[in-house]
């Protein structure tokens, strides 16, 4: 693999970090991602295998952190599982061995661009971008929402910490939307 | 409008795509039904001024198809179910 | 520069002076002024010309209901027409201009319309411009277009930005007068999340315009103290300069916040306005009431205004609209104006109270009021010299937002006004003057009660502060019959009492007809001051009561909204997001020309040095691919991962042809129908494992196909074991096509891909460049020996560079969508022009693909008589008989000698390209019974471009029809 040099979703060699006033937007390229969907009637088997393998399968609208696997709910009996890219680039293969035939597993790492947002309070920024009632939802809340026409997964880790997964091909448009809103708010 | 999603709670209708009458669930079997029956399935819809069962897809959400019972005059939403559950209850299988 | 009409008091900051101009003349005002209050302070009453008759007009109100004082603000790109001077906040350097006048406000040539008013009565459009018919486009429409409209737009791009945003609360309070403040305070003290929105830049509503006390303090001071308490609550959001414009379904409200309108230029990065979408299950409409005038002869002169506005200018802004004033009222509230002005030292020369039989019957002063003539109870007339006249015909509760779900207001005879009825948007309560409760005490009480009811607050109600609780004493008077001049009802649209009489005479007596026939209430102010008078007069004329006559209702927006606000950030380059392909940065380096395909930016072609015309680049890319090898980024095609033990059976249902029999490691072209039998989409689907397929869709339909598959999975066959996820963006995918495609790929692929090991239509997981996971599909869109190779997206750029470098000996080129299109037309593959949502598999020559041995979406209805017509359209290839002849997509097939009329139309050209390989234009098209016309000569006629070309009908497979190259 060494002969092929990866590009980030923003077309760079290294992830980008930008700041606007109190806000930091950090692109994350060190996350491996895979979807895990229970096969029909196999939810109990999947839950058992996931428990044994240390893969969390949180409730609807929730994210659960763990090591090395974290996960968030995306659809009925379906999750996105996160792991460190360096050790889990082959996350789909690794999960397939761990979870067996109870799940359909698909690599999603490069389908998304990940941005971590950090500021003392992200509510004023997010209210210009999406309809999530950010101050009210708890930490560990995960949802799909829309930002400037783009479907985005939003995970609240705290009042000042959010992870966004947006469509990788629109990484520049999403970053532009975030920066524009930041200039408008901060 | 706000659609009370059975799993995710109230969600803005902007996140959904509308399809139409929930009778679209009742697709005849193509190996036994003929053109007439399929014609009625596809084209013969009621268009009530009042309560109506309709299909909405949570495209910018969890991708669930929902059966929403809605009053087309007042827009009041009386009931929301997962379309998969409705389909099963109507006897659909594989 | 003095402000001759500035008097003592008011909530303006006299320590600072603001300079501004109106029609180029410099004036001064103070922070806290509106443009209207500052102009009045400077003795300027004439601010505009009316729409139809160009009558000189001044402000009649001190708020957003203003019909007359519409001005243009700013200049250059920021010029904004039709701004109400009564709500435009004064800032230093403001430039304002009057509008709808030429050459000047005082001398307006179009005022000739006023002299010709007999021709311009209600319905004049319908009557005057009917004949002769030929005059409509040439004469009438250009004339009307020139005369219509009020202000002018800048025609430059708006340099400012507009944001959108989303807010949530437990209680939205609309309006920050006494009722709204009390409601917000009650909810805020209970710890609930509250949004309090008011369109004014100062909260307090009428408390700022009145002199009475609340408790021990002046009303305005009580308002300020209440606002301060609310501001200290973190769960309360105070939004000044924010007009709630509509109540939508299920507790969604629209609001426009004017963030920077009170500044000359928005601060860098900041928006001019924000369109808020507010989610609140409970809301209280506390929007107050709007005073209405009384119609009498020549009641539209600058200086004649609503009595409450006259009082507001004096109390809030320290402005006397004139040195000598009079008041004309039918109710007690009008008397307050006289009392307040007297207290301020303004000379009140007459109070005309219609309840004593006194009425104003005429006025004088063309450019500004000079005198009024009154008639007393005994029938004697008398004139007074005045500069301002305050008129009060009573107060109309601002029911507008309560009507947004079509609720009809009901008539309340006690206050002679419409009030909100029992129906209304669910969750919306009404308090204060908006509910018809017109005293200050009543406002405080109903505001508190509404908040408690909305939020189910229990416990003892708080003690309310003392406030005036005067009863409404009114004796309705809508218009004065004496006097000879026209009496105006809707001043913005120039509707008079005479127009209402004409509507009655011509039997347009329903309120909806009255509105359309006279244009009453159809201007930008939505008839906030005029509507009720108009329908009350209609009631009189028809002998019906006002409730019997009824009222029109209101639609959003409550106040005018600029289109830029609705567009938000979605304009120009930001109209929609872009999607960039994995090869985008490489292509940019090469100077590629990009084309927008949906949201994607795709490489259209890549010009080389010396190429001056796009065809040169495209021809070269096609020839080089067919000669050696070309690479194209096809990442944009939709990819859907389909897994589960029923995945194959599922595909059999959604595709017209069969996939459950496809061996692992193979792919197949799939045709997807809609249930009505029309082709929906196509693409290749590969079987990568026993229970694992990957489907490709067209770029355009990726989202729609995914939605359709979810519908099939969840709604039609809920017990199938099948799971779906999009992988479009996860993989960078390149087509590698041409005689040397395999040789080039062998340079990067780690496995044996010889024809024996990886034959035509093989598919599978491989590795490249020493172990990177990848996918390879041996499929061809171009008709060449071709593959599609995919790697995780982050490696796409590197793989492309690696293929070009390692395969340099084959002179590989990268081709764009144009060359792709040329090659697929040469090969007869259907794409956008043929997948037009009207065509069947049979039309495309793919009828055999629809398997009747299994049930699939669209199978049954594709067999309908109309869709299986042997004389129906069939896909054909087309070439000009003269190889230099030109073809155009969209041209229609005609028999030789047939007249170019619809009856002779036999089909059309769907896609056209120039084939560098064949050396002439070629096209695909749908031709009636086309399969039986191959070899025939016909015409391709295009009446738009004037082309009439003799063509030969061919098989659609115009290049390598036997497919020898792609199996090579």
Briefly characterize the structure:
Chain C: GO terms for molecular function: sarcosine oxidase activity. The complex is a heterotrimer of chains A (186), B (94) and C (968). Chain A has 186 residues and is α+β, with helices and mostly antiparallel strands.
Cα radius of gyration of chain A in angstroms: 17 Å
Overall average pLDDT of chain C: 94
Radius of gyration of chain C: 37 Å
Cα-to-Cα separation, first versus last residue of chain C: 92 Å
CATH topology of the largest domain in chain A: Gyrase A, domain 2
| Largest two-chain interface | A-C, 51 and 65 residues
Global structural class of chain C: alpha+beta
Which stretches of chain A are poorly predicted, pLDDT < 50 over at least 5 residues?
none
Strand arrangement within the widest β-sheet of chain A reads 1-2-8-11-10-9
DSSP strand count of chain A = 11
Going across the biggest sheet of chain C, name each strand in turn.
42-43-44-41-35-45
Low-confidence stretches of chain C: none
Enzyme class (chain C): oxidoreductase
InterPro entries (chain C): 2Fe-2S-bd_N (IPR042204), FAD/NAD-bd_sf (IPR036188), GcvT/YgfZ/DmdA (IPR028896), GcvT/YgfZ_C (IPR029043), GcvT_C (IPR013977), GCVT_N (IPR006222), Sarcosine_oxidase_asu (IPR006277), SoxA_A3 (IPR041117)
Protein name (chain C): Sarcosine oxidase, alpha subunit family, heterotetrameric form
Family (chain C): Belongs to the GcvT family.
Can you describe this structure?
The complex is a heterotrimer of chains A (186), B (94) and C (968). Chain A has 186 residues and is an alpha+beta fold. Chain A has 2 domains: 17-29 and 111-185, Probable tRNA modification gtpase trme, domain 1 (Gyrase A, domain 2, 2-Layer Sandwich), CATH 3.30.1360; 34-110, Heterotetrameric sarcosine oxidase (Alpha-Beta Plaits), CATH 3.30.70. Chain A is 23% helix and 37% strand. In chain A, the strands form 2 sheets. Chain A has a 6-stranded antiparallel sheet, with helices on one face. In chain A, a hairpin with a 5-residue loop joins strand 4 and strand 5 (70-75). The longest helix of chain A has 15 residues, at 171-185. Chain B has 94 residues and is α+β, with helices and mostly antiparallel strands. Chain B has one domain (2-89): Folate-binding fold (2-Layer Sandwich), CATH 3.30.2270.10. Chain B contains 2 helices and 6 strands, in the order βββαβββα. Chain B has helices at residues 35-43, 83-89, and strands spanning 2-5, 9-12, 17-21, 51-57, 65-71, 77-82. Chain B has a 4-stranded antiparallel sheet. In chain B, a hairpin with a 5-residue loop joins strand 5 (65-71) and strand 6. The longest helix of chain B has 9 residues, at 35-43. Chain B is globular and about 40 Å long. Chain B starts with a strand and ends in a 5-residue tail after the last helix. The model of chain B has no long low-confidence stretch (mean pLDDT 97). In chain C, helix 10 (497-505) crosses helix 11. Chain C has 5 domains: 18-128, 2Fe-2S iron-sulphur cluster binding domain, sarcosine oxidase, alpha subunit, N-terminal domain (Ubiquitin-like (UB roll)); 162-292 and 395-477 and 543-575, 3-Layer(bba) Sandwich (FAD/NAD(P)-binding domain), CATH 3.50.50.60; 579-636 and 730-823, Gyrase A, domain 2; 638-726, Alpha-Beta Plaits; 869-968, Elongation Factor Tu (Ef-tu), domain 3, CATH 2.40.30. Chain C has 968 residues and is an alpha+beta fold. A 6-stranded mixed sheet of chain C has the order 42-43-44-41-35-45. Chain C has a 6-stranded antiparallel sheet with strand order 47-50-51-46-49-48, with helices on one face. In chain C, strands 2-1-7-5-6 form a 5-stranded mixed sheet, with helices on one face. Chains in contact: A-B, A-C, B-C.
């Amino acid at each position: 693999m060494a002969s092929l040099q990866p590009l980030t979703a923003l077309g760079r060699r290294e992830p980008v970090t930008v700041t606007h006033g109190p806000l930091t937007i950090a692109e994350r390229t060190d996350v491996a991602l895979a979807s895990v969907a229970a096969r029909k009637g196999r939810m109990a088997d999947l839950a058992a295998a996931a428990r044994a393998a240390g893969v969390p399968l949180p409730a609807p609208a929730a994210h659960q952190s763990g090591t090395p696997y974290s996960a968030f709910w995306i659809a009925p009996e379906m999750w996105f599982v996160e792991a460190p890219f360096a050790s889990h680039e082959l996350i789909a293969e690794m999960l397939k061995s761990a979870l067996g035939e109870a799940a359909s597993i698909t690599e999603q790492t490069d389908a998304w661009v990940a941005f971590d947002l950090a500021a003392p309070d992200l509510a004023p920024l997010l209210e210009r971008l999406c309809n999530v009632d950010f101050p009210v939802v708890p930490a560990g809340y995960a949802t799909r929402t829309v930002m400037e026409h783009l479907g985005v997964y939003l995970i609240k880790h705290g009042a000042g910490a959010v992870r966004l997964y947006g469509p990788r091909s629109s990484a520049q448009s999403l970053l532009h939307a975030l920066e524009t809103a930041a200039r408008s708010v901060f | 409008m706000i659609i009370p999603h059975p799993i995710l709670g109230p969600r803005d209708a902007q996140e959904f795509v509308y399809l139409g009458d929930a009778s679209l669930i009742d697709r005849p079997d193509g190996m036994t039904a003929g053109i007439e029956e399929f014609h009625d399935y596809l084209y013969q819809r009621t268009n009530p001024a009042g309560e109506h069962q309709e299909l909405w897809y949570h495209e910018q959400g969890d991708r669930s198809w929902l059966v929403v019972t809605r009053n087309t005059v007042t827009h009041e939403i009386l009931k929301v179910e997962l379309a998969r559950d409705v389909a099963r209850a109507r006897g659909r299988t594989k | 520069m003095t402000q001759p009409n500035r008097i003592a008091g008011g909530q303006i900051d006299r320590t600072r002076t603001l300079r501004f101009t109106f029609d180029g003349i410099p004036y001064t005002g103070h922070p806290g002024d509106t443009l209207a209050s500052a102009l009045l302070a400077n003795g300027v009453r004439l601010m505009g010309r009316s729409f139809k008759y160009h009558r000189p007009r001044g402000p009649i109100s001190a708020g957003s209901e203003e019909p007359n004082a519409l001005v243009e603000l700013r200049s250059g790109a920021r010029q904004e027409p039709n701004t109400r001077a009564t709500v435009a906040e004064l800032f230093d350097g403001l430039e304002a201009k009057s509008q709808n006048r030429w050459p000047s406000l005082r001398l307006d040539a179009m005022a000739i319309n006023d002299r010709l008013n007999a021709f311009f009565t209600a319905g004049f459009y319908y009557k005057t411009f009917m004949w002769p018919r030929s005059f409509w486009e040439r004469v009438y429409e250009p004339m009307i277009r020139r005369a219509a409209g009020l202000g002018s737009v800048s025609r430059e791009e708006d340099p400012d930005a507009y944001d959108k945003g989303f807010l949530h609360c437990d209680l939205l309070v609309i309006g920050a007068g006494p009722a709204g403040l009390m409601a917000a305070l009650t909810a805020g003290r209970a710890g609930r999340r509250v949004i309090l929105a008011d369109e004014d830049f100062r909260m307090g509503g009428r408390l700022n315009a009145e002199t009475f006390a609340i408790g021990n303090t002046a009303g305005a001071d009580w308002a300020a103290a209440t606002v301060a308490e609310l501001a200290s609550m973190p769960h309360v959001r105070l939004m000044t300069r924010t007009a709630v414009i509509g109540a939508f379904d299920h507790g969604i409200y629209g609001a426009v916040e004017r963030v920077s309108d009170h500044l000359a230029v928005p601060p860098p990065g900041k928006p001019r306005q924000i369109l808020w979408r507010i989610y609140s299950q409970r809301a209280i409409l506390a929007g107050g009431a709007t005073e209405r005038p009384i119609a009498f002869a020549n009641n539209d002169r600058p200086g004649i205004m609503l009595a409450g506005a006259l009082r507001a200018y004096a109390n809030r802004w320290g402005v006397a609209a004139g040195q000598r004033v009079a008041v004309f009222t039918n109710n007690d509230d009008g008397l307050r104006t006289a009392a307040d002005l007297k207290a301020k030292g303004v000379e009140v020369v007459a109070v005309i109270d219609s309840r004593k039989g006194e009425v104003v019957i005429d006025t004088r002063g063309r450019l500004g009021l000079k005198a009024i003539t009154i008639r007393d109870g005994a029938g004697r007339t008398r004139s007074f010299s005045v500069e301002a006249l305050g008129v009060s015909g009573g107060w109309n509760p601002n029911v507008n937002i309560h009507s947004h779900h079509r609720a009809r207001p009901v008539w309340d005879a006690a206050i002679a006004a419409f009030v909100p009825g029992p129906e209304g948007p669910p969750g919306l309560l009404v308090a204060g003057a908006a509910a018809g409760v017109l005293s200050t005490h009543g406002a405080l009480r109903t505001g508190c009660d509404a908040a408690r009811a909305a939020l189910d607050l229990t416990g003892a109600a708080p003690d309310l502060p003392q406030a005036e609780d005067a009863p409404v004493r009114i004796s309705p008077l809508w218009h004065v019959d004496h006097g000879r001049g026209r009496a105006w009802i809707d001043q913005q649209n120039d509707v008079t009492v005479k127009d209402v009489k004409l509507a009655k005479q011509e039997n347009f007596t329903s309120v909806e007809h009255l509105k359309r026939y006279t244009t009453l209430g159809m201007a930008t102010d939505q008839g906030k001051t005029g509507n009720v008078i108009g329908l009350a007069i209609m009631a009189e004329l028809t002998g019906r009561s006002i409730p019997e006559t009824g009222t029109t209702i209101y639609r959003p927006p409550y106040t005018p909204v600029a289109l830029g606000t609705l567009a938000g950030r979605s304009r120009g380059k930001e109209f929609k997001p872009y999607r960039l392909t994995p090869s985008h940065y490489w292509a940019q380096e090469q100077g590629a020309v990009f084309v927008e395909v949906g949201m994607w930016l795709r490489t259209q072609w890549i010009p080389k040095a010396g190429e001056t015309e796009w065809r040169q680049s495209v021809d070269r890319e096609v020839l080089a691919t067919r000669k050696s090898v070309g690479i194209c980024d096809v990442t944009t095609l939709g990819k859907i991962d389909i897994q589960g033990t029923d995945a194959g059976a599922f595909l059999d249902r959604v595709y017209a042809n069969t996939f459950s029999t496809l061996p692992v490691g193979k792919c197949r072209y799939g045709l997807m129908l809609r249930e009505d039998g029309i082709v929906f989409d196509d693409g290749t689907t590969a079987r990568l494992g026993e229970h694992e397929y990957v489907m490709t869709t067209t770029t355009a339909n990726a989202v729609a196909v995914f939605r359709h598959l979810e519908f099939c999975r969840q709604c039609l066959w809920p017990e199938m074991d099948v799971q779906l996820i999009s992988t479009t963006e996860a993989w960078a995918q390149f087509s590698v096509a041409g005689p040397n495609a395999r040789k080039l790929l062998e340079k990067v692929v780690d496995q044996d891909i010889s024809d024996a090991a990886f034959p035509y239509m093989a598919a599978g997981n491989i590795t490249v460049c020493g172990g990177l996971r990848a996918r390879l599909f041996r499929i061809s869109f171009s008709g060449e020996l071709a593959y599609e190779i995919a790697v995780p997206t982050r490696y796409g750029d590197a793989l492309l560079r690696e293929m070009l470098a390692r395969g340099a000996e084959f002179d590989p080129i990268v081709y764009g969508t144009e060359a792709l299109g040329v090659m697929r037309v040469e090969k007869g593959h259907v794409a956008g022009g043929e997948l037009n949502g009207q065509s069947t598999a049979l039309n495309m020559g793919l009828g055999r693909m629809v398997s009747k041995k299994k049930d699939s979406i669209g199978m049954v209805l594709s067999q309908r008589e109309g869709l299986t017509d042997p004389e129906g359209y069939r896909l054909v290839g087309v070439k000009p008989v003269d190889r230099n002849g030109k073809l155009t997509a969209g041209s229609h097939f005609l028999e030789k000698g047939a007249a170019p009329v619809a009856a002779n139309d036999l089909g059309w050209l769907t896609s056209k390209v120039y084939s560098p390989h064949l050396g002439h234009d070629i096209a695909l098209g749908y031709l009636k019974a086309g399969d039986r016309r191959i070899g025939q000569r016909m015409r391709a006629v295009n009446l738009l471009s004037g082309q009439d070309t003799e063509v030969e009908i061919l098989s659609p497979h115009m290049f390598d029809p036997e497919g020898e190259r792609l199996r090579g």
